[in-house]
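Entry:
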Amino acid sequence: MRAAARVTSAKRAATLAIFAACAAAHVAFAMRAAARVTFAMRAVRHAAFPMRALSHVTIAALLAFAPVARATDAVSEWAAVVDRFDRGDMSRYTISILFPAMHDALNAIQPRYARWTPPAHDEPRAAGASPEAAIAAVAEIVLGGLAEGSVAQRASLVAAALVRVPAGEARERGLALGRSVGMAALRRREADGHSPFVQFSTSTRPGRWRPTPPLFGQDVVPTSGPLLFSSPASAALVPPPPAFGSPIYRRDVEEVRRMGGRVGSRRTDAEEGSALFWAQQVSHRGFIDAAVTLLDARLAADRLWTSARVLALLSIGMDDAGVIIWQAKERYSFWRPVTALQEGGFGVTADAEWLPLIMTPSFPEYPSGHATDCAMGGTLMTALFGDEVAFTYRSLGTRVILSQQFPSFQAAARDCSLSRIWAGVHFRETEDVSEVIGTAIAREALRRLPPLSRGR
């Protein structure tokens, strides 16, 4: 009986830990040195995960925070470092500078792919430079410039990385090159408008977003410009949402009423499991984690160059997805399903008691961050690793790791998108449009860092 009681107690503790993880705030913003601000996204979530709904999901561990996979190559290993420095928030801003800079340093030494940032006029000669030393120097400069970790932590990690590099001219050339490339990467982002931030605007006008129950939170909007598009081009990526009262609007509201409610929903157990699985994850961490795991299983001859390009593309794409989508949310200020259903109007019958499966995030509905992130990640991963590649996606929350097998990257992306309808926080047209946006961001990222022709 005592043993049974201990098991019951352990299960209850695990459920409570998951519940706590799912109540975490969706967007975390932390000040960085020289007014640089980290933009990291976590979904505002709520729901005591019913264990029946998680029958197809594995609970791997309960930790202080759920870390990304640790890799064995000199590039990918820094993903876990940034994640650890940020206590599981893995700053999109930091990795969108760090990994493209590592990519540039490697391609200065041996050009295989187009560079992200053009070389500085005084960039040292790369011939004979150690790739590993250059990578360590990039990390030293970028992480130091963004005040990631302490001085002692950074020095210790860089020293450990350099133990693998024999002393000599190659090492010194690599260090000089990496420092130059790291400084160029920081200079490129100095004036990107990453601060100040503004709170989402609110309105009591029908159809416009206002804070939602039970927390009535009001998050903030990044003001930085996108990396891959001009500001007008990024705005053009996001068309207006459906007109209030239109057939599409009424169709989508009624679908969420049926499928996304906390009680009386028609969704299946599998759909509910997907809603809860994707609700507590952080997309850029999940896709970086999956990429690192897949890279670690492939012993390519150009491993460092491949790793750097993969992580650079994912980091750039995810940073742009965050900026483009959040600014469009402010621009359109579309209300959430819970408000649309509780207040009614526009041809919708009001239901003041309706609540979604999970806690509604504290920012406008249109477009969808989840659908954009996952479509962007799925499109990039398909291009980089191949179609129909079965993989495990780990839903990395702040205190829990859930994992699920998918037959392909696109299957995972679609499940992620639909899960937001089943969770009761997004409309179908929003998810469909956001998938198109994410795909467009991924394709532009791939266009910017193509393989170089053999004739060069």
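Residues 376 and 439 are 5 Å apart (CA to CA).
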